[in-house]
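Human: If only I could read backbone structure tokens as easily as an amino acid sequence. Underneath my words sits a plain record pairing an amino acid chain with its backbone structure tokens. Take your time, and here it is.
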Amino acid sequence: MSRVLISEPLTPTAFAPFGDVLDVEGTPDMMINQGLCGRYHDRAHLEFGAGRPGISLFQAELRALPYHLDMMERHPLGSQAFIPMSMDGFLVIVAPDADGVPGQPQAFCTKPGQAINIHRNVWHGVLTPLSGSGLFAVIDRIGEGLNLEEHWFENPYVVQKPER
């Protein structure tokens, strides 16, 4: 039997327990390039432990809502930043830890222009673009060691849009 999750808009406050929202809301921290470029400075807490930072490109297949969540994963040795390479939103699912397994998941829909950084050891769903190209730049840890744990749900969740 499936359990229902209603997605909500991604906000820095709601996402703070799981990671960082990367966007250009508000005033730039500084102006650079002769005053022609606003720099929104140091927007994410990146963690790489004994590894090194790497930039990879992910080409993910588009998904749709309702979305069936049957597995979550986490990376105990480093953070992961997901930066869409198009102006399209995507689905983000995260959960607190509950004694080594995901607790109650939360689903967020990003808006165009938002990216995320998931902190080290945070349970999250797989990359889930809902429109656009599905192409993402990913900044994460490269190095030795087991940096992937998966949890498969006995009773999966179904993520739905909020009712209007």
Notes: The CA atoms of residues 57 and 85 lie 9 Å apart. DSSP finds one helix and 17 strands in the chain. Residues 12-15 form the longest helix (4 residues).
